[in-house]
Write a structure and sequence with these properties.
This protein is an alpha/beta fold and about 575 residues long. The protein has two domains: about 260 residues, Carbon-nitrogen hydrolase (Nitrilase/N-carbamoyl-D-aminoacid amidohydrolase); about 210 residues, 3-Layer(aba) Sandwich (Rossmann fold), CATH 3.40.50. About 35% of the residues lie in helices and about 15% in strands. The chain starts with a strand and ends in a 27-residue tail after the last helix.
């Protein structure tokens, strides 16, 4: 049997574009005399369509696109079977729709499968829209019996997620004696997930079940899909589709295969894969939103430097506008570092100095003049407590205004440059993260440094100097917060592990190996054993909880971790636990 894997980049609601990608795959598979082509989950509608599914015309468009595929199949190679995902109506009781996979051959729907296991954790909420299926579905090609699964169907045991299902579709197909199982997937990227997929699917195949696993590629809002579609034959991975920046249609012939195992890709490549998927997530978010230009504030710091580099890779340097906005507290070396970065990358460079002192003085003078129609008596202004941090933050607020002006004037999408560690602690001025997209929103600070060090175009001084917001004289991040070698593990344990007590955090670090996230393991170890650690930890965790209101107002950014600040993390803003 000859199989084509349709690893494509779909977009919710782009029925015309999604159809063209499918038709291209059908043409390729037909020309190569393939027996079967498999596309990702919800191929025609795109994933995640969310509440667009409540629009009746949306569902009609899905069904009419399916009819068009049937017409296309009439003129394709008659031996070709097309398997793709779409939204079908649920004729019975329950939710209005089903997450379906159709098998089409010579203009006919010869089989239909309804996804049985519907995830409702992290970013997934399929039980909101879909009624689960209950039965397997099989069809035949030549002398082979083929079964169909959709994504979660092969993840019956969630293990660490403690999300176990009562049914196991993979076992159903084993009992039916199928020769080949095809799996349609829209599985978003999370660091380390690729290896988990390989292991899980290989475990399923141990009974002699061959598997074709097709996953989509591309960015969709906060998610990015990494593809990595693969074929398992005889318990070995024999094909991996590694292309992520464009649609690919690799072909595998089961009859001609020598069953040479490819294994999984070398784990040392995983960090390079992270960089590529951050680029892909940004590229798709910007371009699918109808933009081709971006603008960002470039300070000479490591965060903005990394965002600038990723933007140049995603969109081309000629479409990236980097604005330097020094104030009286900006160091000369930061200015020089940013200029050198922009020259190395080949992007646009602008300098717009920030003059904030006169604005602050004028505002405070005007606030000192009281007026009230009820003639109420106010306390003297000198008795009011004044927060000097407001003077510092005025610089950041002015920078936001200048970036937004450029965005409005020249139609360039504004990028935020904040990272996950700082976002957790609210260590940013309120509107700094309120632009259109935050490419490194889900990166811990040590990941930012590591990615910055990996690109020779980012001047070494940017990632060797101590991080600073430069909003006051001699200001350093780690004097306001704990060192990042300690702070990163605290944030990761709190956000991804739901750990909020010092004793549990200490055990998490020492017993479970999560100390690996620290950029300085000795410093973390010494801090864990210090007398002040418990009180500092409690204060910091309380701060993270209180900053939920700021994080809720931030723009989307690409999710790459198990739990990101975004649609998958649902914490009340007003609560007393933290």
């Amino acid at each position: 049997m000859k199989v084509c894997l349709g690893q494509i980049n779909t977009t919710p609601g782009d029925f015309k574009g999604n159809l063209e990608r499918v038709k291209k795959g059908i043409d390729i598979a037909s020309a190569q005399n393939c027996d079967l082509i498999v596309f990702p989950e919800l191929t025609l509608t795109g994933y995640l369509s969310q509440d667009l599914l409540y629009n009746p015309e949306y569902i009609e468009a899905s069904l009419s696109t399916l009819e068009e595929i049937k017409r296309v199949s009439l003129v394709s190679n008659p031996m070709l079977h097309i398997v793709l995902g779409y939204v079908a109506m649920n004729p019975g009781p329950g939710k209005p729709y089903v997450n379906a996979a159709a098998v089409i051959n010579q203009g006919q729907l010869i089989s239909e499968y309804r996804k049985q296991l519907l995830p409702s954790y992290d970013v997934f909420d399929e039980v909101r829209y879909f009624e689960p299926g209950f039965e397997p579905a099989c069809f035949s090609i030549k002398n082979s019996k083929i079964g169909i699964a959709v994504c979660e169907d092969l993840w019956n045991d969630k293990n660490s997620d403690d999300y176990n299902y009562k049914k196991n579709p993979a076992l159903q197909y084993r009992d039916l004696g199928v020769d080949l199982l095809v799996s349609l997937n829209s599985s978003p990227y999370v660091q380390g997930k690729r290896e988990q997929r390989f292991k899980k699917i290989l475990d399923i195949s141990k009974s002699g079940l061959d598997i074709v696993y097709v996953n989509q590629i591309g960015g969709q809002d906060e998610l990015v899909f990494d593809g990595n579609s693969f074929v398992v034959q005889g318990g070995k991975v024999v094909l991996v589709a590694e292309e992520i920046f464009r649609d690919s249609y690799p072909i595998f012939d089961f009859q001609e295969s020598g069953m040479e195992s490819l294994g999984s890709k070398d784990p040392v490549d995983s960090f390079h894969e992270l960089k590529d998927l951050l680029i892909l997530g940004m590229k798709d978010y910007v371009e699918k939103s109808g933009f081709d230009q971006v603008v960002l504030a470039s300070s000479g710091g490591v965060d903005s430097a990394l965002v600038c580099m990723l933007a140049c890779e995603a969109l081309g340097s000629e479409n990236v506008h980097a604005v330097r906005m020094p104030s009286i507290f900006s160091s000369e070396h930061s200015r020089e570092d940013a200029i050198q970065l922009h020259q190395n990358l080949g992007c646009w460079d602008y300098e717009i100095p920030i003059v904030h002192e006169s604005i602050v003085a004028d505002l405070n003078e005007r606030y000192a003049i009281h007026s009230n129609p009820l003639n109420l008596v106010y306390k003297k202004n000198s008795e009011k407590k004044y927060n000097p941090v407001a003077d510092e933050n005025m610089q950041a607020r002015l920078r936001d205004i200048y970036i937004m002006h450029f965005s409005n004037a020249y139609r360039a999408m504004p990028l935020s440059t904040g990272n996950k560690t700082e976002s957790a602690c609210g260590y940013y001025t309120h509107f700094d993260m309120n632009f259109s997209f935050a490419p490194i929103k889900d990166l811990y600070k040590h990941q930012v440094f590591r990615l910055a060090r990996s690109d020779a175009r980012i001047p070494s001084n940017i990632w060797t100097k101590p991080p600073s917001a430069e909003l006051a004289a001699n200001q350093l991040d780690e004097e306001s917060l704990l060192p990042y070698s300690i702070l990163d593990p605290i944030v990761m344990a709190y956000v991804e592990g739901s750990i909020s007590s010092f004793l549990l955090f200490r055990s998490w670090c020492l017993a479970n190996g999560h100390v690996e996230i620290s950029s300085d393991k000795i410093a973390l170890q010494n801090w864990l054993e210090s007398a002040v650690a418990s009180d500092q930890y409690s204060s910091l965790v309380s701060l993270i909880g209180k900053m939920e209101y700021k994080r809720r107002q931030t723009c989307p950014g690409t999710k790459v971790s198990k739990v990101a600040f975004g649609i998958g993390r649902r914490i009340p803003i007003v609560e007393k636990w933290s």
